[in-house]
Amino acid sequence: MIRSNFHTHTTYCDGKNSAEEMVLAAIENGMHALGFSTHSYTSRDLTYCIRKEKIAEYQKEINALKEKYKDKINIYCGSELDVISDMDRDGFDYFLGAVHYIDVDGTLLTVDGSGDEQKRDADKYFGGDMLSYAEAYYEMTKKIADLPEVGFIAHFDLVTKFNENYELFDEKDPRYVKAWQDAALHLIKMGIPFEINTGAISRKKRTTPYPRREIADFIKEHGGTFIMTSDCHDKDYLLCHFEESDKIYEGIEVLDFENFLK
Ligand SMILES: [Zn+2]
Ligand SMILES: [Zn+2]
Known about the structure:
Elements: E1 4-5, H1 19-28, E2 33-39, H2 55-68, E3 74-82, E4 94-98, E5 101-104, E6 107-110, H3 115-125, H4 130-142, E7 152-153, H5 174-188, E8 194-197, H6 199-202, H7 213-221, E9 226-229, H8 242-248, E10 254-255, H9 258-261
Parallel strand pairs: 1-2, 2-3, 3-4, 4-7, 8-9, 9-10
Antiparallel strand pairs: 5-6
Helix pairs in contact: 4-5
The structure holds zinc ion (2 copies).
The site of one zinc ion (ZN) has 4 residues, from loops.
């Protein structure tokens, strides 16, 4: 089982714990590496991202923790970069590329808020067609390829957060399959790993990680690779569902993202 996690959030954005509390929990869990990935500053949405004036403090604090705990664990200062983020890229060790919104002519629709919100937005902007909504999400996802600084791809099929049992749309529908396959092929070309992300499990939104097994198989078949993260917002879930995920993705090699940083 992988004992690192490069997708974690603290009180600098929407996480529950301080960075040091996370470090102490990681050491307790026998982890060899911990990457912090605060939500990048995004002037178009100030609700859950790091504030612009806090970025220097964040970097300083993570770098101080790096030094303080260097004999026990390797610490990295990163950020989860949304494709619409306009944050200055200086001073970070790595980035993950993510999509949390669909941009409809300048209006941002939040993808991971709730199933009701997705449905409401599909009604209002896509004539009630959830598949069109999902297609628009994957079009946004392709924009990660425009961010060469990104080291891995976060929660590729986040649009299914509230659709584990097809409550909102049919994931077998050829239109849906084509949308994710096109986006996957586009992003595989970047040559960076996709994450297996267990975050929605700890938050009780799903019982399985992103991406669906069939998506993971497709990505693997087309030359893509994987790392594992828990998109951690609470120190008690740093390695949440990692062991079970090894079984879910049996036959798919999971790499340690730290090896990409050396
Ligand atoms: Zn995210
Ligand atoms: Zn995240």
